[in-house]
Design a protein that fits this description.
By secondary structure, this protein is α/β, with parallel strands linked by helices. About 35% of the residues lie in helices and about 25% in strands. It has helices at about 5-10, 35-45, 60-65, 80-90, 125-130, 150-155, 165-175, 195-205, 220-230, and strands at about 25-30, 50-55, 70-75, 95, 110-120, 130-140, 180-190, 235-249. About 35% of the residues are buried.
Amino acid sequence: MTFRELVDAAVDTAIEGWDFGVLDGRYLQGEPSWDYRELVGRPLRSATALLDLCTGGGEFLSSLAPLPPVTAATEAHPPNVAVARRRLGPFGVRVADVSADPGRLPFDDGAFDLVLSRHGAYVPAEVRRVLAPGGLFVTQQVGGRDLAELNAALAAPPHTYRTWDLDTAARELERHGFTVAEQREELVGGVLHDIGAVVLLLLRLTPWQIPDFDPTSYETRLRALHDRLAAGDTLRVHSHRFLLTARLR
């Protein structure tokens, strides 16, 4: 496909929720050495009240069924709220739209004994407030060095949150009364194969990566990268991931 065909197809692609399946075979992304699902599964078996932060379209949360008797989720991206409610409704999950104030959790103090956040932002003070004493917080985060090679390839500014890393997150949680039980951090390799995958990633799936990105203003830089990829080169990138489990003291 030509540059224009790849870009136009990416712009026209409709995506529901956080469906990365559209990048299958085009963005080969490794996985960290830990298994987030397994780490979540252990406390999930004994949890009676679960909160999933930034649930997206509810894809991951629904895959954890059966869920605790009380399960709720939040979502701050308005198009995903309806998707999540449709997917999670049959499981009895309440999905709260927090787009107006993402930092505030609309739940009672001490309402949950397990809070999850997979690639979603959180406010430590709010997580503490909604957790019951002794409750557990499990999060896998996207660090500030995520896909930095992509920004560099397009001569785009670096992340505004580039200092976000394991040490910073762990210190924040400890200051808010948590004891960190487990922590890991890795840069995981990946490969982007075509310019359409780049546009899909930046425009539809990770718009925070380059906040001012649009295919028109970046066309010259996109064309230069396309020429590299079309000539048989690949764009090697790294996903920055870190994991924390922390119990409320």
